[in-house]
Amino acid sequence: MTFVGKILVFIIMICALLFLGVSTVVFTTATNWKDATAKEQKKVQDLQTKNQNVTAAVDAAKKDLTAAKDSHAKAQQEMAGRIAALEGDSKRLNEEMTKARSELESAQQNAHTSLDEATALRNETSLLRDQKSAVEKQANEYKIRQTELNDQIRILTRERDVAKKNNEDLRDRVAKFSSLLRKNGLSDDISQVKGLDSPPTVRGEILRVDAQNKRVEISIGSDDGLVPGHELNLYRIKPRPEFLGKIKILSTDPDQAVGQVIGNTVNGKKIQEGDIVSSTLRTL
User: Fold this and answer.
1) Buried b / exposed e across 219-241, counting CB within 10 Å, b at 16+?
2) Which of 23, 81, 239, 252 has the most CB atoms within 10 Å of its CB?
3) What H or E segment, with its residue span, contains residue 16?
4) 3-class DSSP state for residue 196?
């Protein structure tokens, strides 16, 4: 029996003695002692019943206390296991944290190195981009120049072919005219023939202009009476009529001709496709 049980039993005995004393006093002082005795016996029985109940409660409390001790021991054992597991986890986490800190420091160092390399690469890329832009600009200039040269080559080739054809035609015509003139008793000296320096009354349009604003292709040719050496006026109608300068015919085709700007255009204006060439300025 535990100390608490002993105290409870001692208290119960004291209570029983007190009740016994009270019942004795009542028994000795009461007139109807039988009834008093019966009552006291009943009280004793009640006290005994209460005592039994209290004893049972004490036994139940003991059992509960034993169960609580067992549960506490089990819980304490479980807590010890959990503490050991937490200590293991804490140790593992500390090791992982140390490893992660080391890896982080290494990663930061690598990041600084990579950043320096990226900065160097960015600077190099910027330099290469500038160089590329310069090369592309120069290449575009070369392409434009090549296009202009191709246009000049095409014009010169055309002029050469036309001049060659015109030369052959002119030789045939000169031979025929010379033969005809001599046959009719006339001189075949061209310097004695007047009126060949003035072009006929013609009017055409600019079809193409070279990049130097010097040579042009026009929409009229030998079928319109033009020959190399003729000079034509160059002007523009829209948005307002204005005189641009003069051109000299270099070569002719039946329906086209190539001309050279004489000197410079007025105020250095750029000749445009659709500008007018004419032997007169009647439209201004």
Assistant:
1) ebbbebebbbebebbbbbeeeee
2) 252
3) helix 3-29
4) coil
Q: How far apart are CA 217 and CA 57, in angstroms?
A: 131
Per the prediction, the chain carries an average pLDDT of 82
| pLDDT tens-digit map of 162-219 | 767 767 776 776 677 667 666 766 555 554 444 456 788 999 999 999 999 999 999 9
Distance CA 16, CA 55 (A): 14
Which tens digits make up the pLDDT trace of 217-236? 999 999 999 999 999 999 99
Listed in order, strand segments (DSSP E) in the chain are 203-209, 215-218, 231-236, 242-252, 257-261, 276-278
SS3 letters across 149-167: HHHHHHHHHHHHHHHHHHH
Percent pLDDT > 90 in the chain is: 25
Q: How far apart are CA 122 and CA 168, in angstroms?
A: 66
Delineate the domains of the chain, giving CATH numbers in brackets: 196-278 (2.40.10.340)
For the chain, the straight-line distance linking the first and the last C-alpha, in angstroms and rounded, comes to: 142
* The model's pTM: 0.37
> Which residues lie below 8 Å from residue 43, measured CB to CB, with a gap of 6+?
19, 23
Residue 116's SS3 state is: helix
- Residue among 199, 215, 211 at smallest CA distance from 259: 215
Q: What is the 3-state secondary structure (H, E, C) of 72-104?
A: HHHHHHHHHHHHHHHHHHHHHHHHHHHHHHHHH
